[in-house]
Amino acid sequence: MRKINKIKQTLKSGGRVFGTWSMLSSPAVLNVIGSTGLDFVIVDLEHGPTTFETAENQLYAAEAGGIEPIIRLAEDHAPHVLHALEIGAQSILISQVATAAQTERIVKSCKYFPEGNRGLSPFTRNHGYSDRDLPAKLQYANEQMLVGVLVEGEEGIRNIPEIARVPGLDMIYLGVYDLSQACGVPGDLMNPKVVRIMRDYVKLIEDCGLAAGSVARDRDYMELLIDAGFRFVSYRVDCAILKDGLDTAFGWYQEMSKGR
Predict the structure, then answer these.
(1) What span, in angstroms and rounded, lies between the C-alpha atoms of 67 and 88?
(2) Total domains, the chain
(3) Does pTM surpass 0.90?
(4) Residue 228 and residue 201: Cα distance in Å, rounded?
C-alpha cells in the first residue's frame, strides 16, 4: 500500500486539518463521514467498542470515502501499536502520554529501522502483501507515518516542553480538560488562565516544528482553537453528533405538535 498521508503532508507544510472522532463501531458510519469533505476521522479504540478486526474494515470505508483514518489507542503497548499499523493505519494517536521517554518509545514502535524498532512482516496490507521492493517500502512507510500523542494529566502537561522535542513526533493533542484541572479551574475551559497557558503551549509546540491538536465542542470553542494556532482541529464525536441532530429534530416535532 503506497498511499500519501495527506494529513501529514498538510501539517508539515504548515496547513490546518479538520475532522471528527468515531466511537460507533461501524464502517458505514466512517464512509458517511468520509463523504462530508472532512480531512480525518479518529477511530477510538480506547473508549469505543471497536476491535482491530472492525477497525480494519473502518479503514477501508474511510479510505473509500476519501478521508484519512487515524487510530487512537489507549496506551503505548507495542503489540497493539504494531497491530494498528499492520492493518493499514498511517496515522496513530496514543493516549495517556506523560513523559518524553514514553514518547520516544512510541515513535520507535511506529518506525522501521533505522528510525525505530517496529516489527517487520512484508506480508501485510501495509506492504501490499509482498516482500518485493521491501527497502523502498520501509522507507516510504517511515516517511508517511504520522505519530501523535494525546497529553493528559498534570504530569503530561508539565512535561510538554520535553515531549515536544522528541525526534519523529508530528503532533501533540492537548487534553484541554486536563489543562483546566492543572490550572486549578476544572472544567472552566474559557478561563483566562487556561486560555493563556493553552496559547503558550501551542506556540511552544509550533516552535518545535510540530502541530498542536485539540477538540472543539461548539462553534465558539472551534474559533478559539483556530485563533490560538491549533492546526489539528477535531469536532465532537459521531455518536454525540447523531444525538444532537435527533434531539434538535425531536424538539422541533414537539413544538409543532402542541395543540394539534
Answers:
(1) 14
(2) 1
(3) yes
(4) 10
Q: How far apart are CA 78 and CA 64, in angstroms?
A: 28
DSSP secondary structure letters along 67-104: -EEEEEESS--HHHHHHHHHTT-SEEEEEEE--HHHHH
Where does the pLDDT of residue 1 fall: very low under 50, low under 70, confident under 90, or very high at 90 and above?
low
Identify the CATH number of the domain in which residue 162 sits. Answer: 3.20.20.60
Angle between the N-to-C axes of helices 78-86 and 52-64, in degrees from 0 to 180, rounded to the nearest 10 = 40
Q: What is the rounded CA–CA span in Å between residue 188 and residue 258?
A: 37
Domain extent at residue 138: 6-257
- Residue 1 belongs to some domain of the structure: no
Query: What's the CA angle centered on 154, arms 151 and 176, to 5 degrees?
Result: 55
User: Residue 175 falls within a domain, yes or no?
Assistant: yes
Cell numbers standing for residue 185: 479551574
In the chain, what's the furthest Cα-to-Cα distance? 72
Cβ atoms of 204 and 218 closer than 8 Å: no
Give the number of other CB atoms < 10 A from CB of residue 71: 26
List pLDDT tens digits, range 2-23.
689 999 999 999 999 999 999 9
